[in-house]
Amino acid sequence: MTQSSAQDNRLAADTLLVREYLAEVPHKPEPDPTENQRYRDAIKALLKERNATLVAHYYTDPEIQALAEETGGMVSDSLEMARFGRDCDADVLVVAGVRFMGETASILSPDKTVLMPTTAATCSLDIACPIDKFSAFCDQHPDRVVVVYANTSAAVKARADWVVTSSIALDVVEHLQDQGKKILWAPDRHLGHYIQHKTGADMILWDAACIVHEEFKAKGLMDMKALYPDAKVLAHPESPSSVLAMADVIGSTSQLIKAAVELPEQTFIVATDQGIFYKMQQQAPDKTLIVAPTAGNDASCRSCASCPWMGMNSLQAMYESLRDGSNRIQVDRDLAARAMVPLQRMLDFSQQRQLAVKGKA
Ligand code: 13P
Ligand code: SF4
Questions:
Q1: Is the domain of 74 the same as that of 221?
Q2: Atom 6, ligand 1: which residue's CA is nearest?
Q3: Which end of the chain is less crowded, N or C, counting CB atoms within 10 A of the terminal residue's CB?
Q4: Is residue 297 part of a domain?
Q5: How far is the CA of 78 from the centre of ligand 1 (A)?
Q6: 252 CB under 6 A from ligand 1?
Q7: d(Cα 282, Cα 269) in Å, to the nearest integer?
């Protein structure tokens, strides 16, 4: 079998795997405002009673983000979620996001109880990077530093030298490149290509993608730019390179929000999950935000700028989890200890960088 047909087969198998998962994602009923209010009140009471804190990702429903804000919790990107969960003094962390975020919280805070509204909320990147295949891939390249994206299982993290999120990936790879290191990157190929392109680092890439960002199409974006010639394009680096080539700002969720606030332009076309619009509009109320098109010649939108797994976080599920202590995330202690090493490396690196930036100011 040639290398490219082996790669095609792997991609087809990954796509099938993701489709099977998606077929099981339940359809979310329309929210009933009265019922939602009841859940909100009950969750607030339970958060207090259990000394619990709600930590939500920017892609979750606006009602969940608003609840995290109102109750003194946190709404953020995946890096800040990890930090906040570790540093806050709650006994219980309620993590609204996808499974790897709950696992990361559990690894970093072994003495806290970590609950999730649903443990079925996974991620196409996590699914497409199973530990057995990944470990074999690493074994074939013992001369490379293994850098994995946070959107992976605890077992994949435990096999890595570094864990990174999108807000710090570029800095970490630059740092490793300065040391003359060769890199094995997994699992997101678009983010990997982007970093490789920006740094010129010697990287080999695992071949997986985010089903949400994969759907953004350059052709549709070009048409939209023609319609809004003054708009700036903000894109998450999980988007395809043809889309990134047209972006004015490429960054993690929090970096894109910052750009919408700080740039002088009035209109932004945003290529990431639509959940981000809640916070972006809150921080930049006078700006016009438009979701980047997923339509194009070869589009078959399975997600339409909306992560199906993030969408599984509902108020009802959160209430039930808090009430019953169900959907608890517990990473095996030995595995957690091993996954902690590359995670801690990322957090230490990010802290050092922040101090360095502050020092320069
Ligand atoms: P951030 O690290 O930018 O929050 O992204 C997480 C994610 O899942 C993007 O799809
Ligand atoms: Fe994973 Fe993509 Fe969903 Fe982020 S948006 S959690 S990368 S499937």
A1: no
A2: 78
A3: C
A4: no
A5: 6
A6: yes
A7: 16
The answer to whether residues 151 and 100 touch, using CB atoms and an 8 Å cutoff, is yes
Q: Which atom of ligand 2 is nearest to the CA of 210?
A: 2
- 29's tokens: 């009923």
Report whether residue 151 contacts ligand 1, using a CB cutoff of 6 Å.
yes
Whether 119 maps to a domain, the answer reads yes
Of ligand 2's atoms, which has the minimum distance to the CA of residue 308? 3
Same domain, 117 and 187: no
Residue-wise pLDDT tens for the chain (361 aa)? 555 555 556 556 666 666 666 666 666 667 788 899 999 999 999 999 999 999 999 999 999 999 999 999 999 998 899 899 999 999 999 999 999 999 999 999 999 999 999 999 999 999 999 999 999 999 999 999 999 999 999 999 999 999 999 999 999 999 999 999 999 999 999 999 999 999 999 999 999 999 999 999 999 899 999 999 999 999 999 999 999 999 999 999 999 999 999 999 999 999 999 999 999 999 999 999 999 988 644 545 556 789 999 999 999 999 999 999 999 999 999 999 999 999 999 999 999 988 664 443 2
Q: Which atom of ligand 2 lies nearest, measured to the CA of 272?
A: 5
Q: Which ligand does the CA of 58 lie closest to?
A: 1
Please name the residues in contact with 103: beta carbons below 8 A apart, sequence gap of 6 or more. 153, 154, 329, 331, 339
Tokens of 28: 């979310």
Number of domains making up the chain: 3
Whether 339 and 317 share a structural domain: no
91: containing domain: 12-124+309-330
Question: Which of 307, 312, 313, when mutated, tests ligand 2's pocket best, judged by the most ligand atoms within 8 Å of its CB?
Answer: 307
Does residue 323 lie within any of the structural domains? yes
| Residue 100 CA, closest ligand 2 atom number | 6
Domain match, 103 and 192 both: no
The reply to whether 304 falls in a domain is no
253 lines ligand 1 (CB under 6 A): yes
Which residues have a Cβ under 8 Å from the Cβ of 217 and sit 6 or more positions away? 242, 243, 293, 294, 295, 296, 297, 298, 299
